[in-house]
TrEMBL record:
Record family assignment: Belongs to the fluoride channel Fluc/FEX (TC 1.A.43) family.
HAMAP family, sorted: FluC
Organism: Candidatus Methanofastidiosum methylothiophilum
Binding, Na(+): 74, 77
Bilayer topology term: Multi-pass membrane protein
Record function comment: Fluoride-specific ion channel. Important for reducing fluoride concentration in the cell, thus reducing its toxicity.
Name assigned to this protein: Fluoride-specific ion channel FluC
Regulation of its function: Na(+) is not transported, but it plays an essential structural role and its presence is essential for fluoride channel function.
Catalytic activity: fluoride(in) = fluoride(out)
GO biological process entries: cellular detoxification of fluoride
Major localisation: membrane
This protein's encoding gene: fluC
Pfam families found in the cross-reference section: CRCB
Length: 126
């Protein structure tokens, strides 16, 4: 039950943060889903940082890792919204935006994971 509460509380916080960050980034942009792309990239970076700190340095406890990764970041990032928005671009025959969205999301989130790893390893070199 304790773990479920951690996931639920983390999810509550992550969902609110996603709403705020995505809305703030998306403000005024009509066609391209930049808000969703942004939360996926930001979330990928922080997921990488948290998991590398946990797995390689033992910084976070199992409960903290679950709270942050499954709870907060699980609700903060979303592939379902990415998929829906991509499909809507396809339906609207916005093939350029569709291509940019898919390629940018995949490449930038992978790059964010790499940056998270580099960030953690550079801090803990000593």
């Amino acid at each position: 039950m304790h773990i479920l509460l951690l996931v639920g509380i983390g999810g509550f916080i992550g969902a609110i943060l996603r709403y705020l960050v995505s809305g703030w980034v998306q403000n005024g942009i009509s066609y391209f889903p930049l808000g969703t792309l942004s939360v996926n990239v930001i979330g990928s970076f922080f997921l990488s940082v948290i998991l590398y700190l946990t797995e390689n340095k033992g910084v976070f406890s199992e409960e903290t890792r679950i709270f942050l990764t499954i709870g907060m970041l699980g609700a903060f990032t979303t592939m379902s919204t990415f998929s829906y928005e991509s499909f809507r671009l396809l339906e609207g025959k916005e093939t350029l935006y569709l291509s940019i969205n898919i390629i940018a999301t995949v490449l930038l989130t992978l790059f964010a994971v790499l940056l998270g790893k580099i960030f953690v390893l550079s801090i803990w070199r000593s």
